[in-house]
């Protein structure tokens, strides 16, 4: 008897051990999935919200690099009904197969096969933890089951000019849902039959038959030359056996989405892409809509009071537009435009914050200027100081400068002017 997709036992595995070197200094003290985003969220909240909204309530999060803040966020925020047997739990690297840490994403699953043994799922959904998007994984699971494939890869259409930045999927023209070849960052890609200027790029999200995944990662663990990577080693293993299918993200329908944000997906792996994704949020008509009540992004930001906008002490007016002000934010007679202010940020009178992202607890003193900057937690900008105005001055003071942005690390000291 064939079990319908809706009756399959599904376990979700979130890969959250990423170091995120290109997001330094934001990842100097935390794992990439724990990096704050969009004011009140952390990057992992988007992956977990997608999984939960899809109806999958048994979730393990594999962690490794500087995972304390990530583990704390998961355990204090993501609590499921134990009465119904549901859970979301972080699982650190445990050295179950030897005195070594995870060698790659596939090795992380191999070293955690006890989780599959305990849960005995039919289907395993494997997702990354550091992308900004909405996706209904249940539709992908349904297609996977119907296809009969052992592995299904979620893919997003990208311009062919960007093909050398992704793992690119070559589909079989006779069976467009089947993968003919998986090309890692190709320099001579071929466009899609229905869109010659586009390619299908892997999103880093997969659906597996559980027994097929166990077999694949177990075999991969024995290969000395393997990089033990899900995209670089496991997917090609299934492709070579004609057991891989592709799921086109453009076909994914998320309740409550609109034409403007349908199909939105951001890989925030660089400081510039992290910044640009924030600017998508503060556009008058946001490219990514945080206000979709039918597919909410869940999180917790603690017992913060409401945001407050007040005149300066001497009656100075304040100007705030095209910005996100999180709970606990206070703006006193200053100017905030095209910016994201995370919880407990404070902007004093006559200060200016423009085109910037402030993480929790940042204070901008009276008369200070912050432009085109990303400032990590608990930084105090002294009265009259300027950040992002002169790149040369920023470099001289020890700030990170690049791609038109100035970046300050968590708790970094800003010299008085």
Task: Describe the protein.
The chain is globular, with a radius of gyration of 23 Å. The protein is α/β, with parallel strands linked by helices. The N and C termini lie far apart (75 Å). It contains 9 helices and 29 strands. It folds into 2 domains: 5-282, Spore Coat Polysaccharide Biosynthesis Protein SpsA, Chain A (Alpha-Beta Complex), CATH 3.90.550; 308-408, Hexapeptide repeat proteins (UDP N-Acetylglucosamine Acyltransferase, domain 1, 3 Solenoid). The strands form 6 sheets. Strands 1, 4, 5, 6, 8, 9, 10, 11 and 12 form a 9-stranded mixed sheet that branches. Strands 16-19-22-25-29-28 form a 6-stranded mixed sheet.
Number of helices: 9
Give the end-to-end Cα distance, rounded to a whole number of Å. 75 Å
Mean pLDDT: 91
Low-confidence stretches: none
User: Which band does the percent of strand residues land in?
Assistant: 25-35%
Strand tally is 29
Structural class: alpha/beta
Looking at how many chains there are and whether they match, the oligomeric state comes to single chain
Rg, rounded, reads 23 Å
Mass-distribution shape: globular
Name given to the CATH homologous superfamily of the largest domain: Spore Coat Polysaccharide Biosynthesis Protein SpsA, Chain A
Structure summary:
This protein has helices spanning 44-53, 68-77, 105-110, 113-119, 137-147, 210-221, 230-240, 271-282, 391-396; strands at residues 10-15, 36-37, 41-42, 58-63, 87-92, 123-128, 131-133, 151-159, 167-172, 175-184, 198-209, 244-248, 265-267, 308-310, 319-321, 324-325, 330-332, 335-337, 340-341, 346-347, 352-354, 357-358, 363-364, 369-371, 373-375, 380-381, 386-387, 400-402, 405-408.
């Amino acid at each position: 008897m064939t079990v319908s997709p809706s009756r399959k036992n599904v376990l979700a595995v979130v890969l959250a051990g990423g170091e995120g070197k290109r997001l330094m200094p934001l990842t100097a003290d935390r794992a990439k999935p724990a990096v704050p985003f969009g004011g009140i969220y952390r990057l992992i909240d988007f992956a977990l919200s997608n999984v939960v909204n899809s109806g999958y309530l048994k979730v393990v999060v594999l962690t490794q690099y500087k995972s304390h803040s990530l583990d704390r966020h998961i355990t204090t925020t993501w609590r499921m009904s134990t009465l119904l047997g549901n859970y979301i739990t972080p699982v650190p690297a445990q050295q179950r197969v030897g005195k070594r840490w995870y060698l790659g994403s596939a090795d992380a699953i191999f070293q955690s096969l006890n989780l599959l043994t305990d849960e005995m799922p039919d289907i395993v959904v494997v997702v990354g933890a550091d992308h900004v998007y909405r996706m209904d994984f249940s539709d992908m699971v349904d297609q996977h089951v119907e296809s009969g494939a052992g592995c299904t890869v979620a893919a997003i259409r990208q311009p062919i000019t960007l093909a050398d930045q992704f793992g690119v999927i070559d589909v079989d023209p006779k069976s467009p849902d089947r993968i003919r070849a998986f090309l890692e960052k190709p320099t001579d890609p071929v466009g899609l039959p229905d869109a010659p200027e586009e390619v299908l790029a892997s999103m880093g999200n997969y659906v597996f038959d559980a027994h097929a995944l166990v077999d694949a990662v177990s075999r991969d663990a024995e290969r000395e030359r393997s990089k033990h990577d899900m995209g670089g080693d496991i997917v090609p293993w299934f492709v070579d056996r004609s057991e891989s299918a592709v799921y086109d993200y453009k076909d994914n329908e998320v309740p409550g989405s609109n034409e403007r944000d349908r199909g939105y997906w951001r890989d925030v792996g660089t400081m510039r892409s992290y910044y640009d994704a924030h600017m998508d949020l503060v556009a008058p008509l946001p490219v990514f809509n945080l206000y979709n009540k039918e597919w909410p992004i869940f999180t917790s930001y603690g017992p913060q009071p409401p945001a407050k906008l007040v005149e300066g002490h001497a009656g100075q007016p304040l100007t705030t537009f095209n910005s996100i002000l999180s709970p606990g934010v206070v703006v006193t007679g200053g100017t905030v435009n095209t910016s994201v202010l995370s919880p407990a940020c404070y902007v004093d009178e006559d200060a200016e914050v423009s085109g910037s992202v402030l993480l929790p607890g940042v204070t901008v003193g009276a008369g200070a200027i912050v432009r085109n900057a990303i400032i990590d937690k608990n930084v105090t900008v002294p009265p009259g100081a300027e950040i992002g105005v002169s790149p040369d001055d920023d470099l001289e003071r020890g700030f990170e400068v690049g791609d038109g942005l100035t970046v300050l690390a968590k708790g970094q000291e800003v010299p008085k002017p």
